Amino acid sequence: MSKLTADDLIYGYINGIFPMADADGTLYWYAPDPRAVIPIDTYKPAKSLRQILNKNLFEIRINADFEQVMRYCSAPRSTDDSVWISEEIIEAYTELHRLGLAHSVETYQDNRLVGGLYGVALGAAFFGESMFHHVSNASKVAFHQLILILREQHFTLLDTQFINDNVRRYGAIEIPKADYLKQLKAAVRRKARFTEPVLDHLFSSQERK
Hints:
By secondary structure, the chain is α+β, with helices and mostly antiparallel strands.
């Protein structure tokens, strides 16, 4: 099989599939049914996170160190954790990043990268891939910033692939694959730009309640 490229990734995402590597590096393509998504408009930060946001404990940067975010995400969380982000995947997504289609949201303390996430933006769809944290709440703050960006830039779909406890805390739900593909088709046809928000607030008046 030929080496994974940015074009392969674009084709895959547009058609509702994404790659993951096996332990030996072999790539497989997945299309879960049901599919996990996070409704962008209904996300609401937990009260504890609002307190963290108000303290401004982290500096947030966008696309400042994309490859390093991927490498931190690729590290196993525990001794029995499987690694699905191979070197081939890192190279392909980094190529996609250079094309302006893959993005990272990063959190820093004392100029040190301590948390973040990365994903792919096509049209008004954002495909969340993975996140990491080296300091408590660092990835949660990065995710909150992601939501601000997606809302301000009028994204309509936030794909999180598989359901698990981590994405449930952000409001993830499962929908049938057929429904996902309909939302995907509509989202990739819309125009949206993944750029830093100009919002001067951390959360809306509704989210302060």
